[in-house]
Amino acid sequence: MHFIRLVLVAVGAARLSLAVATSRSGLLQRADTQQSIYSASPPAPPAPEDITVIELPLPPVAPNNVIGSCTKVINSRGTGCIGKVTGLGSGNFLPDNKHVVASVIFTGAPAAPDPRSIYTGLQLIIVKADKTTFPNGDPWKCITCGMPPANQLGRVDLMDYPQAFSDGKRVLAGPQVIDCSPFQLSSKKCTPDVTHIYPIRWNTSPTGDGAGGSIRELRLHPEDNHLGFNSLAIGSDGSVSQAAYIGRFVFNKAPTIGTPLSARYDLSNVTALIDPQERAQIYVEGNELKINQSAIGIGELRGFSGSGQEVTYIGAPTESCNIDVYAIHLITGKIRRLTAHPEYVDPVDISPDDAWTAVMDTRGTGRQMWLSGMRGIPPIVDMVATAAISSTRNNGERRFFQPWLIDQYGDRGQYFGQQINGAGDGSPGSVNDPEWNGRADPKWSPDGTRIVYYQAQTVSPECGGINPLPCYNSTEPGGRQERMMMATLTSRKPCTRRAPVPFADVVPWGTPFVPGSTISSPRYIPGGNYTLRGQVSGTAMVEITGGADNTSIDTIAVTYFNYSDDGASILNGGERVTVTTPYGGQNEVDWFSDIVQTGATHGTKTTTPGGLHLSVNVFKNLAIFTGNLTTTLDGTVWYQPANGT
Ligand SMILES: *[C@@H]1O[C@H](CO)[C@@H](O)[C@H](O)[C@H]1NC(C)=O
Ligand SMILES: *[C@@H]1O[C@H](CO)[C@@H](O)[C@H](O)[C@H]1NC(C)=O
Ligand SMILES: *[C@@H]1O[C@H](CO)[C@@H](O)[C@H](O)[C@H]1NC(C)=O
Ligand SMILES: *[C@@H]1O[C@H](CO)[C@@H](O)[C@H](O)[C@H]1NC(C)=O
Ligand SMILES: *[C@@H]1O[C@H](CO)[C@@H](O)[C@H](O)[C@H]1NC(C)=O
Ligand SMILES: *[C@@H]1O[C@H](CO)[C@@H](O)[C@H](O)[C@H]1NC(C)=O
Ligand SMILES: *[C@@H]1O[C@H](CO)[C@@H](O)[C@H](O)[C@H]1NC(C)=O
């Protein structure tokens, strides 16, 4: 097999977009648990607060994609239509707190020379969030429709994760910057003629030539001058790995080398968010396995904290099968575990004052509990199983995400945050309709009182038939299958956003990137028998069987003897997991589990005789199971989803 370190398939903006993340070295990480859930005295959890959710307006929907189907009957102002499948990617607020940026796919425009012909394809819009309209009467405005070709040299057809700069003039959208300088995007002076699109180039060539490296999942630092991004490397053997980077934007008005040879943003002073010494989260010392709670293990970069001092990311799990988000301080390398609930989380945004976290999480849906529900299992089998584990969170295109609000101290005790759209009757189209599932990213308003997010409706084949949810027609205008929502935290007073902390280009714990260099192969633990000592009691005997090629792990077996990391619950029994990856993204997993938990929680995690066979592709997220893996916690039984649901 190929040793896929930590493969996390993240939520893309578009229905088909995918993200695969791998952590660097050995991939297991215990976050600094001292600071969060196991902390001696975190403050008492906050009481639930009042939240109202409304939908934000979008352009009208054309009945189909035929040229001219966006008639004047549908849009009397002639400012375009989108499709039922909107291509929506909602982003953040402009600094005025009154507009939200989004990308959509316009469709049905009449042919040129009709002036309406410019409303076609993927475009950036800004949407009024205060129930007002632009002077023409529309509550949205297209920023990029009808730009002269000379203003958009090197434009690419990708505008995922649109993020406005705090100058109100520019938006990062996909690997490019949309710039209306010197005008505010919301100003009527910001017209297509004065708007520019500048591509972003990451030079990876020692000579400076070529198109540069491929960058994805871009996130803007709140001080506007730096970009966080990820870059995938797919090996010739089909293995997938990824590294996260931060670099400085340098506007290059007239480049003389590298492509495109037009005005662009170059990334300089790029640092890989990788420990240069590659100290792994799980490492070998003699015959023992040790877990380093502070080792750097960034899977996929997700953004920055409100003050800009921390990078958020999906990390290698702290507890087995439990995918969480973390924040690491750019200077000190201190790690915070932002979430701990056993369910899957990935999109995250920290509030401007750093005191709150908004996430998209499967918590509350029971989606992953059969696998991840038992707390306190050290993340040992995860060294081979994380890719498969994270891929069971979706049913193909159906995500199970809802937006949640968690305080800065994270999940603890019985506190698992507050569902942002929890109030509603659950009826078709209501704000908490389970058929409407979250996408990436939720975003805080600069004044800290609102969170904007977007959702997609569950459609066939992920509803109806054997699925738990029936199919029904969208109740949205025009039958739209995506929608943009805005939550207001009504008891909060608007605050003026404090200036973010500027980043001075140096990550003391990172690895400066040198063009032409390659990221070294992941380390893995060689085959053998090891002991892992519980932090409070007991041991785990770990048998690692290496792959024939000596560059991977095939099988991990763990046997627990009175093992406890917290002294509250104790593990006995064991697990054995074998993973092969026959081709790109495909994981074939054999899982045998018979773990008994006693103490504070009485639980079992067991497989049926013959074990569970799980077959899943990280690019499709459609798991097929043979046999069962079932987790029972204090009498509550959690089953895996039926095949195809
Ligand atoms: C950033 O890059 C520039 C240009 O290569 C260089 O002069 C400067 O020293 C770098 N800054 C840091 C902090 O490394
Ligand atoms: C654990 O990781 C931290 C952060 O990289 C490092 O400073 C420390 O030396 C590591 N400890 C061990 C025992 O490897
Ligand atoms: C959904 O809409 C289509 C066409 O608009 C209609 O034919 C169909 O009967 C509707 N289905 C349901 C379940 O209402
Ligand atoms: C682990 O120990 C068992 C029992 O001594 C032995 O059969 C097995 O070969 C060892 N495994 C490895 C990978 O060394
Ligand atoms: C595999 O690794 C072991 C231990 O480092 C080494 O002795 C052995 O020669 C390696 N085998 C191959 C095929 O590289
Ligand atoms: C098992 O661990 C618990 C604490 O986790 C300890 O109190 C108990 O003495 C241990 N039992 C044995 C047999 O070691
Ligand atoms: C697996 O679980 C399902 C319920 O989800 C049950 O119907 C089925 O009988 C179980 N299979 C085995 C082999 O226990």
TrEMBL record:
Instruction: Reply yes or no: does the keyword Signal apply.
Output: yes
By its UniProt entry, which SUPFAM superfamilies does this protein fall under?
DPP6 N-terminal domain-like (SSF82171)
What are the boundaries of the signal sequence? 1-19
UniProt keyword list: Signal
Q: Mind telling me which InterPro entries this protein's record contains?
A: 6-blade_b-propeller_TolB-like (IPR011042)
What is the name attached to this protein's record? Saponin hydrolase
Q: Which organism is it from?
A: Pseudogymnoascus verrucosus
